[in-house]
Design brief:
about 240 residues; alpha/beta; 6-stranded mixed β-sheet; two-stranded antiparallel sheet; about 40% helix
């Protein structure tokens, strides 16, 4: 049905004042489209094998569950959320993280708690620019999902990261710098299993640095969760920790 003239005029004026488009595909006049949102409803899959810098000497591989590949529309939505000022996506991604926590809960339920959910550290400058600590937002959502799956977990933002721009560095430079940049700034319950939450996984350098810092003070890291990873491992996702 054709819109009435006043409605079309109002919509045109609104687009000029506050332009709206799907951050995933650029479709105009929608906050996000169904096709781009669909990726965040998929079952989680294991991404640790694609994170080249995640390996830690003398340590079993860290299970890493993610929801979507960091490509196409999903990449666009993440970019709009992190660097495009799209705070209206906070709720959508919090819901995706909550579902992720609920779905992963059965895979970690055999590990005795009490569990601790630790967000990956966000740089202060990034948090100020975005107006939100995104890993902390996701960590709280994951804890809600774990609770729905029968696992009680406290959220502890225990990690800090030093200042410095990472995105223009090579992968090797980022890995070397990250290892010394992440530190533990708050105490955790001794021996409690830890689950790290981050927004995306690219090389795995950030997660590896978080693991090294936490296990260096006696907090065993059992798994990590993130919204997206650079590339999906071929084949079906598998459940279980090891």
């Amino acid at each position: 049905m054709r819109e009435r003239l006043p409605v079309r005029v109002a919509r045109a004026v609104a687009r000029v004042v506050v332009p709206v488009a799907c951050p995933g595909c650029g479709r105009e006049d929608v906050r996000w489209c169904e096709a781009c949102v669909a990726a965040w409803w998929e079952d989680p899959w294991r991404a640790e094998h694609d994170a080249a810098r995640l390996d830690i000497v003398a340590r079993p591989p860290l299970p890493v569950w993610v929801v979507a590949p960091l490509s196409g529309g999903a990449h666009g939505m993440i970019a709009g959320w992190k660097d495009g000022g799209r705070r209206d996506l906070d709720g959508l991604f919090a819901d995706a993280a909550e579902r992720l926590g609920r779905r992963v809960a059965p895979a970690v339920a055999s590990v005795p708690g009490p569990w601790v959910v630790v967000p990956a550290p966000a740089r202060r400058a990034s948090t100020r620019r975005r107006g939100e600590d995104l890993p902390l937002l996701l960590a709280r959502a994951v804890a809600r999902g774990l609770a729905q799956g029968g696992i009680r977990a406290d959220v502890r933002p225990a990690l800090a990261i030093g200042a410095g721009e990472q995105r223009r560095r090579s992968a090797g430079d980022r890995w070397r710098a990250m290892r010394s940049a992440v530190t533990v700034q708050a105490s955790l319950p001794p021996g409690s299993p830890v689950l790290i939450v981050d927004d995306v996984v690219t090389t795995g350098a950030t997660l590896a640095a978080c693991v090294a810092a936490l296990e260096g003070v006696g907090s065993p890291v059992v798994a990590a969760l993130a919204l997206a990873a650079v590339e999906r491992v071929a084949g079906d996702a598998h459940a279980g920790l090891w």
